[in-house]
From TrEMBL:
InterPro entries: AAA+_ATPase, ABC_SmlMolc_Importer, ABC_transporter-like_ATP-bd, ABC_transporter-like_CS, Mo/tungstate-bd_C_term_dom, P-loop_NTPase, Transp-assoc_OB_typ2. It holds the Pfam family TOBE_2. The keyword Transcription regulation does not apply. It comes from the Bacteria. Residues 7-237 form the ABC transporter domain. GO terms for molecular function: ATP binding. The keyword Transport applies. This is ABC transporter ATP-binding protein. Keywords: ATP-binding, Nucleotide-binding, Transport. Transmembrane segments: none annotated. PANTHER family: SPERMIDINE/PUTRESCINE IMPORT ATP-BINDING PROTEIN POTA, SPERMIDINE_PUTRESCINE IMPORT ATP-BINDING PROTEIN POTA.
C-alpha cells in the first residue's frame, strides 16, 4: 500500500540577501511517519522548518501539505503545529489551560475544550494533570505537555525544533523513546530537526542529512549509517576513522590504494567516479575493524596491521580503543569486542587489526 505524502517540499530555496540558507531542497514525508532533518549548526534546518510553519516565505519553490500549496497561507491557517526547544509553556497557567490555549483561541466551546484536553492528557500519559502547575512538572512531563498542546489541535504535521536540546543527557535518552512512542500513538507526521545524530537515528523512519543548505542524502537510519552517499554524511553520522589514499589499481569495484604513509590497502566500493592516480577519502567505522591479540587469530585476512594501544575508553557496550598504527602511519579507533577477551588491554599493548575491503566507504576528493 502506498501512503500519500502529508508534506511535499519542491525545490525550496531561501535567500537572505546574497546568502543562500536553503538551496534547492526537495523531499516528501508520507502520512504518519517520523522524518528528521539532521545537520550541523547553521546548515539551514531552522530556516527550512520556519518555511514549513509559515514564519518565513520561500524565495522560490513550492510547499504542499495534504496536496495543497501553502504559499501565501499564514501560519495560523496551516494544518501544522510546532514544538519549540524551550517549549514556551505559559508559567502562570495550569496544565489544562496550557493545553487548551489553542482551542480557546479558535473559539471552541468550553465543554469541548475540557473533554479534548482531558483526552489528550491521557494519550500523552498525564491523566489527571489538568490542575497542576507548570513548575510542579519534571522536564519529561513538560515535554509531554508541549506535545499535548500541539496535538489537541489535531495538526496534519507536527514540527519539532530540537525539543530535547535543553534536557540533561539521561532524560534526553529516555525522551527519544517516548517521543517515538507518542508519534506512533497519534499516527501524525512528525518533522523533527536536530544536530544530534543519535536522536535522528533512534526515532526516525527517514533521515535527511543537511549541509550548507542542501540535502546530502535522504534515507532510513540504516541506509544513512551503513551506506552514506557522501563523505560529509560518512563523517557526520556515527563515529568513523577517516584517512586519505590514492588509487593505485582498479578492477571493477576492487580498488588497490596507497595511504599517505605508503601502506597498501584493498577497498571494495562503487568506484565509478574513481580512476587510477586519483585521491580519495576513506571512512571506516570502529566496529568494522577486527581486533586480535595474535595475528593468527584474525578471521579477516585482508588489510591486516599491527598497532599499539594509546588509550582505552570503557563505556559499556560502546567501549573503544585508540591505536597508533606505525605501519599505516596513523591513529584510529576500534570498537572493543564484548567478549571480555580484551578486558585487560592497556596502553602500550600490541594488537593486530584487519578489515574487510567492503567495510570501507570511499569518496573521490572534491575536485581531485
Ligand atoms: P542551528 O542548529 O544553529 O539553529 P540551523 O541549521 O537551524 O542552525 P539556520 O538557523 O536555519 O541554521 O541558519 C542557516 C543560515 O542562515 C545561518 O548561516 C544563519 O546565519 C542564516 N540566517 C538565518 N536566518 C537569517 C536571517 N533572518 N537573516 C540573515 N541570515 C539568516
Amino acid at each position: 500500500m502506498t501512503v500519500s505524502p502529508d508534506l511535499v517540499c519542491r525545490d525550496l530555496v531561501k535567500d537572505f540577501d546574497s546568502f543562500r540558507a536553503v538551496d534547492h531542497v526537495t523531499f516528501e514525508v508520507p502520512q504518519g511517519s517520523f522524518f528528521s532533518i539532521l545537520g550541523p549548526s547553521g546548515c539551514g534546518k531552522t530556516t527550512l522548518l520556519r518555511m514549513i510553519a509559515g514564519f518565513q516565505s520561500p524565495s522560490s519553490g513550492d510547499l504542499l501539505i495534504k496536496g495543497r500549496s501553502m504559499l501565501g497561507v499564514p501560519p495560523n491557517k496551516r494544518p501544522v503545529s510546532m514544538v519549540f526547544q524551550h517549549l514556551a509553556l505559559f508559567p502562570t497557567m495550569n496544565i489544562g489551560d496550557n493545553v487548551g490555549f489553542g482551542l480557546r483561541q479558535r473559539g471552541v466551546a468550553r465543554s469541548e475544550i475540557k473533554a479534548r484536553v482531558t483526552q489528550v492528557l491521557e494519550r500523552v500519559g498525564l491523566p489527571g494533570f489538568s490542575e497542576r502547575r507548570v513548575e510542579q512538572l519534571s522536564g519529561g512531563q513538560k515535554q509531554r505537555v508541549a506535545i499535548a498542546r500541539c496535538m489537541v489541535l489535531e495538526p496534519d504535521v507536527l514540527l519539532l525544533d530540537e525539543p530535547l536540546g535543553a534536557l540533561d543527557l539521561k532524560l534526553r535518552e529516555h525522551m527519544k523513546i517516548e517521543l517515538k512512542a507518542l508519534q506512533s500513538e497519534f499516527n501524525t507526521t512528525f518533522v523533527y530537526i536536530t544536530h544530534d545524530q543519535s536522536e535522528a537515528l533512534v526515532m526516525s523512519d527517514k533521515v535527511a542529512v543537511m549541509n550548507h543548505g542542501r540535502f546530502e542524502q535522504i534515507g532510513t537510519p540504516h541506509e544513512i549509517y551503513y551506506d552514506p552517499k557522501t563523505a560529509f554524511v560518512a563523517g557526520f553520522v556515527g563515529d568513523a576513522n577517516r584517512f586519505d589514499a590514492k588509487v593505485s589499481a582498479k578492477s571493477g569495484s576492487a580498488l588497490s590504494m596507497v595511504t599517505q604513509a605508503g601502506t597498501q590497502i584493498e577497498v571494495e566500493a562503487d568506484a565509478s567516479d574513481l580512476s587510477v592516480g586519483q585521491g580519495a577519502e576513506i571512512f571506516l567505522r570502529p566496529e568494522a575493524i577486527e581486533l586480535a591479540k595474535a595475528q593468527a587469530d584474525l578471521t579477516v585476512k585482508t588489510n591486516t596491521s599491527v598497532g599499539v594501544v594509546t588509550s582505552v575508553f570503557f563505556n559499556g557496550a560502546n567501549s573503544m580503543v585508540s591505536l597508533k598504527d606505525a605501519k599505516a602511519g596513523m591513529s584510529f579507533n576500534v570498537a572493543l569486542p564484548q567478549t571480555g577477551a580484551f578486558a585487560d588491554l592497556q596502553p602500550g599493548d600490541e594488537v593486530y587489526t584487519s578489515w574487510h575491503p567492503a567495510k570501507a566507504r570511499c569518496y573521490a576528493h572534491d575536485g581531485a
